[in-house]
Amino acid sequence: MTSQFAALCFDANDPLRLARFWGELMGREVAEDPRDGVVLLPGAGTEFPIRFLPTQAKKLGPNQAHFDLTSDSPEGQERTVARALELGAEHIDVGQLPEEGHVVLADPEGNEFCVIEYGNKFLADTGFIGALSSDGTQAVGYFWSEALGWPLVWDQDEETAIQSPHGGSKITWGGPPVAPKLGKNRLYYDLSAAGQAEIDRLVSLGATVTAQGEGDRVEMTDPDGNEFLVLISR
């Protein structure tokens, strides 16, 4: 049995503030989290929980992954940008070209995200979080496709993307060159797995066990060295 995508985690210096920002922007409810943080509860359909966990570490550079938020109209893109700025986001320059239609912003802790222009066909029918756009190799895209049992929906020029068979947000990887890793990623996956055999399978696919956490939690890295957590169910 493949691992299940349980949540996306954010390490945050102020988890509650960051959760409230994203909750207001996405229209989702903030609730207490059993791991000393807070969580945005999923809404209808294929939305996943988003957990905000405390850290004292400061952000060192661009994140390995960021949200691509979709727009239902040109005016909808403008509304999302305006609302994000009102909640505490700011415009940032990551080298985007003037003719590109997306808007690049950072949340109150500097986590980058994009508000994508209306009419983007690749993100059609994905939901408000169109994609978790990631820096990574083709090999890591293949790894996560096998790990989660999510089919590849893009595999060209070493760029890859996967999506749950049920639809929803895509996860994309841009291919080489991959930026140097600057400390622990601030965004990472939380998985659930049915037994130690699944940990062994992930290792056979190219993952590495880095620590055995409290109880049945296992800390791992994928083939690109990105951290993720696995909770083993018994």
Query: SSE string, helix = H, strand = E?
Result: EHEEEEHEEEEHEEEEHEEE
Biggest sheet: strands side by side, in what order? Answer: 2-3-4-1-13-16-15-14
* Unreliable stretches covering 5 or more consecutive residues: none
Number of alpha- plus pi-helical segments: 4
User: What share of residues is helical?
Assistant: 10-25%
* Estimated share of beta-strand residues: 25-35%
The SS-based structural class is alpha+beta
As for the number of domains, it is 1
User: How many strands, which pairing sense, and closed or not: the largest β-sheet?
Assistant: 8 strands, mixed
Distance between the termini: 14 Å
How would you describe what is shown here?
This protein is of the alpha+beta class. It has helices at residues 15-26, 74-87, 138-148, 196-205; strands spanning 4-12, 30-32, 38-40, 50-54, 65-69, 90-91, 103-106, 112-115, 129-134, 152-156, 159-163, 170-173, 187-194, 208-212, 217-221, 227-233. An 8-stranded mixed beta sheet has the order 2-3-4-1-13-16-15-14. Strands 6-7-8-5-9-12-11-10 form an 8-stranded mixed beta sheet, with helices on one face. The protein is globular, with a radius of gyration of 17 Å. The mean pLDDT is 94. It comes from Nonomuraea endophytica. Keywords: Dioxygenase, Lyase, Oxidoreductase. One of its GO terms (molecular function) is lyase activity.
